Structure formats: C-alpha cells, structure tokens
Amino acid sequence: MSKREEERYNEILNYSLNNMDDNTKFCTVCGMPLVTANDYPMDADMKTVDWCKYCGDKEGMKNYSELVKGMTEYIKGEQNISEEEATVKAEEAIKGSVAYTSGRLK
Predict the structure, then answer these.
(1) Residues 6+ away with beta carbon under 8 Å from 97
(2) Is the pLDDT of residue 68 over 70?
(3) Is the predicted pLDDT of residue 28 greater than 90, yes or no?
(4) Sign of CA dihedral 68, 74, 76, 79
(5) What is the domain partition of the chain in residue ranges?
(6) How far apart, in whole angstroms, are the C-alpha atoms of residue 72 and residue 86?
C-alpha cells in the first residue's frame, strides 16, 4: 500500500470510528461499520441491506467463494502474509460471521 493509500485508509477508518454510536450497523459478513451511504453497496436500501459494498451489491451478498477470495486479498495485503495463511483466516472469519452462522450465506 502506498503512503497516500495508507493515509486515505486511515482517514476513512478514523471517520468511521468517530461517527459510530449505539445505532451503528455493521456488515454481517466482515464486521465493517456501516456509518455512511458510501459504506453500503451503490444504490442499496440502507434500511434493509446489512452488508457492506465489499461483501455484496444491492441485489445481495456475494457467494462464499467470492467472499473468501476478496477477504483473502485484503488480509494478505494488510497483514503481509502468504495467500495460504490469509485464506485460512478469511475462511475462519466468514464462517464465524452472522451471515454464515444464520444460514443466510451460501
């Protein structure tokens, strides 16, 4: 991640953390705070959608293999670990998610 990308990531993270309250929703797949409309899939109904723009679109959540692939790439970059290690962590995270444990994720 470039220095500019890291700065932008930290700006977004700080904004989200500083604007959360007791009514803040979280993505039921990855746990990302859903603070602003930009956190949701484009054109999604924020009252009914409970996943972030990375875990689905306005039509629904991504399937299990798509989620594992995306989360693996994210973890690999953030933690600077191998793809195999990142895949294990991604699978564990998704299998522990509300969406998975409730049976909504296929």
Answers:
(1) 28, 29, 30, 31, 105
(2) yes
(3) yes
(4) negative
(5) 3-101
(6) 5
Helices (H), the chain: 3-18, 64-79, 83-95, 98-101
- What is the value of pTM for the model shown? 0.76
CB 105 within 8 A of CB 64: yes
Dihedral over Cα of 74, 101, 51, 32: its sign: negative
* 43: region left, alpha or beta (phi > 0 left; psi from -120 to 50 alpha): left
CA dist list (Å): 37 to 33, 42, 54, 88:
11, 8, 13, 31
Q: Which residues contact 2 (CB under 8 A, 6 or more apart)?
A: none
Give residue 85's identity as a one-letter amino acid code.
E
Q: What is the pLDDT of residue 2?
A: 73
Q: Are 19 and 35 in contact (CB under 8 A)?
A: yes
Q: Is 1's pLDDT higher than 60?
A: no
